[in-house]
Write a structure and sequence with these properties.
alpha/beta; about 325 residues; about 45% helix
Length: about 325
C-alpha cells in the first residue's frame, strides 16, 4: 500500500547547484535577483551558496557577496554548503545564514577523493573534528548524510548492505559526541537510482531504523528524478532537495551531461495534483524558473515551466462550460 505524506518540505538548491556549474560566470546581482524571487514563492528553505575553493569552483567565488546582497524574507531559512573547516568559518562569518551541521559519509572513496580530496579514513577524522567545532559554536547537528547512496560513476554499484551499515556508522559517530540524529539524507549524486532501488533502499533502512526521517537528494541526469521522487513519496518520504528549472549538477561527477536535482516546479506540480501539500505558489515558482533561464542565458530542462500549471486550463474550461 502507498503511504503518501500529507505534506512535504522542499529545500530549494537551484542557486547553489546551478551557479556552481555554469561555464559563464553569473553576475552577483543576477544571482541575488533569482534568490529573492524564490523567497517570494512560499519556499521555506533555500540553499544559496557553497563556500568552496574558488579555483576549483569559480562560480562560487562571490559567495559572501551573494549572502550580503539578498533581501532576507522572514520565515525563510537561507543555508550554505561547506566541505571543510575553512568553508564553515566563511559561512559563520556572513552572520546571515541558518547554520546546521551534519555527519557526512561517502560509500565511494573515489568520489570522495575527487570531491573533498580525502580518503574514507580522513573523512571520518574530519567529521569528528568538525562536530567538535559545531558544538563549540552552538551549531545544531540532527542530520546524517550519505552521498552516492545509489551508485557512483567511479566506483560502480553501491551495495545496499553498505549503505545500511553506513547509517549505523552515522549513529555511532553521533553517540560519541552526545548527538541525536533525527534525519538522514540519501543523495543520488550521480543519478544511478531507479524507483525500485529507491524503495528497496528506504525500506531496508526503515526496517532497521524505523524512527529516522529520510530526505532525498535526487539528480535527473537519466530522466529518473521525478519518478524516483514519486517512489520516495510512496514510501512516506516527506523531505526533498530540488532545483528550480532543473538548474545545476555536480562539478566533480565526471559526466558532461550531469544534471541538477529533480526540478522544483515539476515536483511541486506532481505533489499538489496528488493532494500532497507543498506550501509553494506554483505560478510564482514557474516565473522564477523562467527567470533562472534568463539568468543563465540558455534553456533549462524543467517541464512544467514550459507546459504551465493546470489551474489556468481548468479555469478556462470551467468558464467555457458556464
Amino acid at each position: 500500500m502507498s503511504d503518501l505524506p500529507k505534506s512535504i518540505l522542499i529545500t530549494e538548491e537551484g542557486p547553489r547547484e546551478g551557479f556552481q556549474v555554469e561555464q559563464a560566470l553569473i553576475p552577483t546581482a543576477r544571482k541575488v535577483e533569482l534568490i529573492d524571487a524564490l523567497s517570494r514563492t512560499g519556499l521555506k528553505r533555500i540553499q544559496i551558496v557553497s563556500f568552496v575553493d574558488p579555483k576549483r569552483v569559480p562560480g562560487m567565488a562571490d559567495a559572501e557577496a551573494v549572502v550580503a546582497g539578498i533581501q532576507v524574507k522572514p520565515g525563510v531559512e537561507y543555508t550554505g554548503l561547506w566541505l571543510n573547516q575553512k568553508g564553515l568559518e566563511r559561512a559563520r562569518a556572513t552572520g546571515r545564514l541558518t547554520l546546521e551541521g551534519k555527519i557526512s559519509l561517502y560509500p565511494s572513496e573515489k568520489f570522495l577523493m575527487r570531491n573533498n580530496n580525502r580518503t574514507l579514513e580522513q573523512q571520518t577524522e574530519y567529521v569528528h573534528r568538525v562536530l567538535a567545532s559545531y558544538q563549540e559554536h552552538g551549531i545544531p547537528v540532527e542530520r546524517g548524510s550519505i552521498s552516492n547512496a545509489f551508485g557512483c560513476n567511479f566506483q560502480g554499484d553501491i551495495p545496499l548492505a553498505k549503505v545500511v551499515a553506513m547509517v549505523g556508522e552515522i549513529y555511532d559517530i553521533a553517540a560519541r559526541h552526545g548527538l541525536n540524529i533525527k534525519e538522514l539524507s540519501l543523495a543520488d549524486t550521480m543519478a544511478w537510482a531507479t524507483p525500485l532501488q529507491v524503495k528497496r533502499t528506504i525500506g531496508a533502512i526503515r526496517e532497521k531504523y524505523p524512527e529516522i526521517r529520510i530526505n532525498l537528494h535526487l539528480h535527473d541526469t537519466r530522466g529518473m528524478g521525478i519518478a524516483n521522487a514519486y517512489a520516495g513519496l510512496e514510501m512516506g518520504v516527506d523531505m526533498f532537495d530540488s532545483s528550480v528549472a532543473g538548474l545545476g549538477g555536480c562539478p566533480f561527477a565526471g559526466h558532461k551531461g550531469a544534471s541538477g536535482n529533480v526540478c522544483t516546479e515539476d515536483l511541486v506540480f506532481m505533489c499538489e495534483e496528488m493532494g500532497v501539500r507543498t506550501g509553494v505558489d506554483l505560478d510564482a515558482l514557474i516565473e522564477s524558473a523562467r527567470l533562472a533561464e534568463d539568468v543563465v542565458g540558455h534553456p533549462l530542462p524543467g517541464s512544467v515551466m514550459k507546459g504551465g500549471s493546470l489551474a489556468k486550463l481548468r479555469r478556462s474550461a470551467s468558464q467555457a462550460q458556464g
